[in-house]
Amino acid sequence: MSKNDFDQGEALNSPFGRLYFCPETEQIMNCAMFFKYPIDVQGLKKAFSNSTMIEDPRFCSLLVRNPNGEDHWKRVHVNIDDHFILRYPTTITKARGHDEEDDDEATVNAYLADLAVSTPLSKNKPLWEVHVLVELKCVVLRVHHSLGDGVSMMSMLSSCFGQKKETKSGVNGEGNIVKDGNNNHARRNWKIGGILGLIQSMWFTIVFGLRFLGRVLGVKDKFSVISGGDGVELWPRKLVTAKFKIEDFKSIKTAVIPNVTVNDVLLGVISHGLSKYIDDKSPKAVQQALQLSFIIPVHLRKDSSMQEISDLMKTPNLELSGWGNKSSAVIVPIDCCNGLKPLEHVKQKKSVMDKMKHSCCAHFTFKSINFIVSCLGPKVVSWSLHKLICHTTLSISNIVGPSEDLVIGDNPVTDIKVNMSSTFHAITMLLVSYAEKVNLQVMIAKDIIPDPELIVKCFQDSFQEMRSSSKMKLQVQFCRCRFVISSFIRYKY
Fold it and tell me: CATH homologous superfamily for 3-492?
C-alpha cells in the first residue's frame, strides 16, 4: 500500500485493519497525557493541526466500502474541531481520594475505564479524537487500532511533539521496559548455534504453535477468582495505577542472574503479585497446582527500524515501513501459589521467555493471521481470537513510551498512561514508560474483582520484596568478593 493509493482513494484496508473492525476484536487505544500547566485549548488545537499527524494519510481518511465489497481508505478533509471533545467538571464524575492529586488521578482513571467499555469512535470522520479534561490538565488521545499499534502511536507522539534530551533516556537500549520484539532472536540463534540452534528454534516453534492452537480449540485455564469469559467485555470497569521507577527495575535485574531483562522482572512481579492475591482470596484446595496463562502482544519490527513517523512518511510503501500493525502475541504460563520466592519468579519467567525468543511462533502467528484474513475474511480469525481470550486468564500489553520529553502547545507533558478497550478478560494490564517512570494500568471487571486496589498493592509489595532481596543478594556478593580479595592479599603477602 502506497501513499498515492490514499490520495487516489484506492488504499485497501490491511488484514489487521479489517480484523480490528470485527465486533469481537475491535480495539481503541486511549492515551492519557498529563500536562504541567493549565491547558490552552486553542493552543492545543493549533499544535495538533500543525503536526505531522494530520499529514499522515491514515489520520485523514475514512473507511468506506467500494462496489466490489472491499473496504478501502478514502482521503477526506480534516476539520480539527470535529475531533476535539471538551470535558469540564460538570460532565465528569469527580473521584474523592486522600488528597487533590489522588483525586485527579482517580478521576482520570474512572474516565478511561468508562471509555474502555462502550464508547466507540464515530465512523463518519477519521478514526481518532482528542478528549480534553480541562480542569484536570489532562488530554486523552483516542486512536482506532486499525490505524496502527501502540508502537506506532508512541512513535507518532515522539515525532510530532518530542523535544530532544541532552541526557540518555532511561527507556533506551537495555533499559527498555518493553523489549517485546523477538523478530530476530531465532535468526541470531541459527547463526550462533548452527544446526543445533536451528533444530531448537524449530522445536520451540512447533511446541508453542501447538499450545496456541490448543487454546483456540478448547484448552482452558482452570477457573479462579480472576477468571473472565464471554460477555465480560461489557461489564463495568475500574482502573487503578501501579507506579514504579525504571532504575528500580534495573537494580533488581542486575541482582538476579546474567542476561535478565527488565521485561523478565516485570513478568516476575506480576506473577508473584497474582500469587499473593489468589493465595489471599482462594481456598487452599483451589490453590494446588493452579496454572494460569496470560497473553502478551509482541511487536515484530527490527530494532533498527523503530523510526520516527516523519521518517516513515518518506517511505512510499507504508506497509513496508515500520508504521501500522506489526504485532503478534504469545501465551505465557503463570504458576500461582507455588511457594516460589520473588526472585525465583523472575528466573522462572526468564526461562520461559528465552524459549519464546528461540522460536518463530510470533512471526508464524502474524503471517497466518494475514493469510487467513486475506483468504477467508476477518470473521474466522476474530472467532479464533475470541476463543483464545476466553480460554486464557489475563492479558498484558507493554509499550515503550516516547524517548523524548513531549511538549504540546508549549505545555510539557509530565506523565503518560495508556489503556485499551475492554476484552473478555476480567483483568487486563497495560504498562508504559515515560520520563524515568513506569505506569502499570490495571483494569478489572468490578463485579468479578471488587478490590482492584488489593491487586495493585500485591504488585507493589512483590516489587518491594524483590528490591529488598536483590539488595541483600548484592550485599552478600560484595562481602564474598571482599573476603576473596582479602584472603588472596593475606596469602600473597
Answer: Nonribosomal peptide synthetase, condensation domain (3.30.559.30)
C-alpha–C-alpha distance, residues 310 and 52, integer Å: 7
Distances in whole angstroms, Cα of residue 21 to Cα of each of 147, 157, 204: 11, 24, 32
Grade residue 345 by pLDDT with cuts at 50, 70 and 90: confident
Q: What is the pLDDT of residues 27-66, one digit of tens each?
A: 999 999 999 999 999 999 999 999 888 888 888 888 887 7
Tell me the sheet residues that pair with 397: 430
Predicted confidence (pLDDT) at residue 428 exceeds the cutoff of 90: yes
The contacts of residue 335 (CB under 8 Å, 6+ apart) are: 271, 290, 291, 348
pTM above 0.90, yes or no: no
Provide the residue ranges of all domains of the chain, joining segments of one domain with +.
Answer: 3-492
Neighbour tally for 312: CB within 10 Å: 21
Cell of 218: 478448547
How is residue 50 annotated by DSSP? T
Q: What three-state secondary structure class fits 144? A: strand
Query: Are 268 and 346 contacting, i.e. CB atoms less than 8 angstroms apart?
Result: yes
**Residues 321, 439, 399: CA angle, nearest 5 degrees:** 15
